[in-house]
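Lecture notes, unit on protein representations.

Consider one protein chain, 188 amino acids long.
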Amino acid sequence: MIEILSRPWPWYVAGPLITLVMFLLLYFGKNFGVSSTLRTTCAIVGAGRISDFFKFNWRQEIWNIIFVIGALIGGFIASSYFPNTEPISLNAATITNLESWGISQVGWQYLPSEIFTWEALMSSKGMIILVGGGFLVGFGSRYAGGCTSGHAISGLSDLQLPSLISVLGFFIGGMIMTFGILPHIMKL
């Protein structure tokens, strides 16, 4: 049993589970998206006094916060009790690129310590990646009317054209960042 839980689930298990969750959300008139959790949190602490964007009945959206808390707890349980003992399967060219950028243990860690530590955060490279990237993700989510999970999972399953356009924009932006901008930042 533990061996089954320590490996990624195959598409034929994970896919139908995601489909079931989406069906239930659509059935109950809800839209999935993690960025809406931040909006709900801001509304709870009173941001509606500052901006009309946060003036809504947040009690009807509390399920978003419960979902994110569940995802955090699930991630903690999975990483603490069911660690993956095999390296992540990566293309050889990807491994070479990451190693040339100074990332060690490629494939053995999801969050490279060269980027995701307090020491790395306090460097110019860390500030650009984490703070600048966080700002751009936040701005993009607000500008697009939702995050990647909301548009790609919920919006596309509801056949919304704005979600298709947003997802295309997310992927194009990701490609530009990965192949055009990130190599220069990593060499700082």
